[in-house]
Amino acid sequence: MSQTPFLSRRSAMKFAAGALAAPVLIKSTIANAADLERAIGQLIMVGFSGKSAQGRFVRTIAAHVAKGRAASVVYLGSNIGSGRDVLGLNKLFHGAGITHIAIDHEGGAVQRLKQKQGYTRIPSALELAQSKDVAGVEKVYAVAAKELANAGFTLNLGPVADLHRSFNPVIGKNRRAYAADAATVVAYAGAFVRAHRRYGLQTSLKHFPGHGLSNKDSHNGFVDIRESWDPEELQPFSMLIRQGLADIVMTGHLFVRITERDNGELTTFSRTLVQDVLRGGLQFRGLTMTDDLDMGAVRKMAEPREAVLRAVEAGYDILLLSNSLKPNPDLPAEAIGWIRSAIQEGRIRENQIFQSAERVQRSRSA
Fold first, then answer.
1. Which of 261-287 are b and which e, b meaning 16 or more Cβ less than 10 Å from the residue's Cβ?
2. Which of 247, 291, 292, 317 is catalytic?
3. C-alpha distances in angstroms, 147 versus 86, 114, 120, 150?
């Protein structure tokens, strides 16, 4: 298995950002406000309240999807009722014309669908890597992927491509990473991706550019990795991208120094990280995705409207809005209004929205 040559901490990000590729420019064909709103809606992945397809909140979200105001929905643990409830919800969303129905189903501590709902328990990433070979792990993930597909899901928000460190409070202590070395992570994360593709599901590598060596949890506040980040953390993402095993890359809410000249910035708002490092240096052509914009790391830095706009400016294709802090059934329409106004003000380029919308639409048939 080929590996990314080891780079010094000083040069790793610089190298990735320096190998820029010319962007593919797509001429906008937006003819009216309705078409623009539908294009913006492709960027929205929204959460919901309730466990039943009969709930008013859920049906309002489905109506927004049907009108093109959101392309994707995401499940939280609070949305899981019985297995029959899950099937009913996903039938509703598919009927509305959804692109992605996403769920966190890594295994171990992060598995939304439980045995009590009729789903197979999946061990944690570290437990699997320490107890089974790659072929055996792929069989385990094939069971999970088949169950997700049968339930109507289209996107599993995994695998974790971070490096394992036992001191890490959110990755390491929950055994969510496969190993401490990049080659092992790539081998087992690749098994996760292949198993899901076999059943028509897409996956999302996380948490770019590497959350494993941090010592805090970004659910509570932003995590400063300016001093702890190591170039090896970039290797699993780079290798999986080169092997064609990256559908979506999700960044973490991490405070990182991209170049030697800056003092650092939040990855969620970093155009340099998304466009120069990920798109340019690593030549990634799939979908870029934020982690949940409702998490503490973002809330402490920007109110919801500003967080959405700064993430769009950074170049993300999918904005994950769990809608959990202050649940709002009309959040998709509000988010579209924020972005539309920013386009009218010249803050966001219409052509960028159109390019992201096209990537999301292409992913439906990927």
1. eeeebbbbbbebbbbbbbbbbbebebb
2. 291
3. 12, 11, 8, 5
126 token code pair: 């570290």
Q: Using one digit for the tens of pLDDT, what is the confidence trace for 95-127?
A: 999 999 999 999 999 999 999 999 999 999 999
- Enter the tokens of residue 128: 């699997």
Sorting pLDDT into bands at 50, 70 and 90, what band is 213?
confident
Amino acid type, 152: G
| Given 35, 219, 224, 230, the catalytic residue | 219
Q: Is the pLDDT of residue 215 over 80?
A: no
pLDDT at 21: 39
Whole-angstrom distance, CA of residue 28 vs CA of residue 355: 8
Q: How sure is the predictor about 228, in pLDDT bands with cuts at 50, 70 and 90?
A: confident
Report the C-alpha gap between 192 and 64 in whole angstroms.
32
Cα dihedral: 337, 331, 362, 32 (round 10): -30
Beta-carbon contacts of 230 under 8 Å, excluding residues fewer than 6 positions away, are 9, 163, 210, 213
Helices within 207-303 (DSSP H only): 235-242, 271, 296-299
- Is 219 catalytic? The answer is yes
pLDDT of the residue at 323? 96
Stretch (H or E) spanning 73: strand 72-74
Percent of the chain scoring above 70 in pLDDT: 88
Kind plus residue range of the DSSP H or E element containing 56: helix 56-66
Q: Measured between alpha carbons, how far is 182 from 162 in angstroms, rounded to an integer? A: 8
> What does the pLDDT read at residue 221?
60
In this prediction the pTM is 0.90
**Which CA distances in Å does 190 have to 160, 205, 228, 268, 274?**
11, 10, 26, 25, 22
Structure tokens at 347: 């803050």
Q: Is 291 a catalytic residue?
A: yes
Sheet holding 254-256, edge to edge: 223-224, 254-256, 265-266
Q: What pLDDT does residue 20 have?
A: 41
